[in-house]
Amino acid sequence: MKMSVLLAPTLREVPAEAEIASHKLMLRAGLMRRASTGIYTYLPLGLRVLQKVEAIIREEMDNAGGQEVLLPILQPAELWHESGRWDDYGEEMFKLKDRHGRQYCLGPTHEEIITALMRMEIRSYRQLPLLLYQMQNKYRDEIRPRFGIMRGREFIMKDLYSFDRDYEGLDENYWKMYHAYARVFARCGLNARPVEADPGAIGGNMTHEFMALADAGEAEIVYCAHCGYAANVEKAECVVLPVEKSGVLEPLSRVATPGVRTVEELEKFFDRPASQMIKTLIYKGKDVIVAALIRGDHEVNDTKLARAVGLMELELADEATIERVTGAPRGFAGPIGLKDCKLVADPAVMELENGISGGNAVDVHLSGINPGRDFTPHQVVDIRVARPGDPCPSGDGTLQGARGIEVGQVFKLGTKYSEALGATFLDENGEEHPIIMGCYGIGVTRTVAAVVEQHNDEHGICWPMSIAPFHVAIVPVNYRDEEQKVAVDKLYEELKAANVEVILDDRDERPGVKFKDADLIGFPIRITIGPRNLAQGQAEVRKRDVGEVELVPLNEVVTHVQEQIRKAIERESTCSC
Asked: Where are the domains of the chain?
């Protein structure tokens, strides 16, 4: 390919819409353009990268026994009503009607429709196990599309579904996909850590997310360097350390606290640390009001709390609900005397002795409050956010924190969808059973963005060799010079004949402009040919990632480049899994 005919409109200035490195660089390098909020057009260079990521994924899925299918984007509402998720998915789902008034959605995911397919096609245990996957566009009406293709309304995902006759088969396929995913991300040049996670609206009883570590990541994870434990903060277990107690219980006292509402203000007023206080937050869910009790120095984990009461989601209650439940405005809630709500306490709260809480009255707090004596929760369960410095749940080590970009997730679904949609098989005795399912997704477009987040510098993108749009860029200092042109054209044809992905910058531009574009786009190897080196029968070969420059005889450049590509791909393919 020659740059003079390539649609690669690079930008010198950072577009105003771009916030993070991947968004800025993918626009500046001419990989994509914004079509609408959260929707992007991929230009030739961007599409080549996407296709390389897809090729790696296909190879690993095929090697693991997967068979590729293509499921429809437009899905009938009836299937989602059967699974019970038509309303659960909420406003993120694009819903529409055809000319006859029948309801459809643009698929945000494909569990329903693949299960319906299995309902029609699977009859006997002899047809199982089965692994089917697809590479498909997905659609979610994100409330705040942001960060380019990191969180968009339209994106490409690979989803694979496993179908087994028993849980032993599910377990085998789950870990097969787990290790296949580790290989995929290693081959794409990603530093991705598998972490325990919450299954969310997909469902199931076990799941791991693959997090590409990056400062721009929206997810928080905690991990233990000692034992290898790692989890999304939505899932991470919190250990309750024993608290030394005096055994002397103070009487419960009402204390006037004019103008004091926040934990920080209470610390000053009572001259006591937040760890000796109870925060009471009122949440509202479907047909239930929940009072969450958390220690003053901790934060409520909304996901854990919702799961504890059997809901997909909860939201902080409005002012009217708070006043009805507590008898006071926001800022004075406490666990004693609440009306018509479920009291859920974190285990750390139950360890408090002679604590402080809100008094459910304006400018009033309670001191000397003791769980068990003064109030009894309906439920005691871990509902707090894990944080760096917490003890590791394994019992050895301390948790550290990091931010990550979720690039993949594996789920054990069990019979959640097969039972709801009636997907069954007959065993050896002719008895009918629901198919045991697993679900395994990779965000293809998000993986590309995550790679850019991890592989860039002040000059532009530094693509891993495995997914670079082209491996080599040839940059002549002056392509109009006949001697340079002859040498460059000869090398270009030789590299193509050797199956090296090469682009020739034949544009009538200054050398500096060409060098900047090559660095911005991120070609792993740049070959420069100018009058000085040409006179010595040499070319300058530069590695983009480390900036290392070598002078190589022209008749050895092809062999040298092939070896550099081979070593880089071999290194990137190394996976400890």
From this structure: 52-70+109-236+401-453, 253-380, 463-572
